[in-house]
Write a structure and sequence with these properties.
The chain is α+β, with helices and mostly antiparallel strands. Helices cover about 30% and strands about 40% of the residues. It contains 2 helices and 5 strands. The chain has a 5-stranded mixed β-sheet.
């Protein structure tokens, strides 16, 4: 379990750098509200972006982004709703996924899926 936590942490750090290079301004990392959590909250222009980061060392069991199912998306929607309720200035919202594949301890591939809706 510890290795999964470290892999996820490394993936989120890489995702932040990747997003900042593309003009996103990071507002929050690992934002929590009760049992809800959002990996990265950022904005670009007038749109609030919610990023779910999925990192894997192998694609043996599928691509990282394939692990997001209906329950996870519902969880993300509830968390985003709570964030918007607390931050009413954000009217427009977009869900995105940053999919990261690692090889050893280095990033092999970063793939951004924008405006996802499951």
């Amino acid at each position: 379990m510890y290795q999964n936590h470290e892999t996820g942490k490394a993936g989120e750090t890489a995702a932040v750098m990747f997003l900042e290079e593309r003009g996103y301004r990071i507002l929050e990392r690992n934002w929590r509200h009760h049992h809800l959590e959002l990996d990265i909250i950022a904005f670009k222009g007038m749109i609030l972006h919610i990023f779910e980061v999925k990192t894997r060392h192998s694609i043996q069991f599928g691509w990282p982004e394939e692990s997001i199912g209906k329950n996870k998306m519902r969880f993300l929607k509830n968390a985003a709703e709570a964030y918007q309720f607390q931050n009413k200035q954000w009217k427009y919202l977009q869900f995105n996924v940053v999919s990261i594949t690692m090889e050893s301890d280095s990033i092999k591939e970063i793939f951004l899926l924008e405006d996802v809706y499951f």
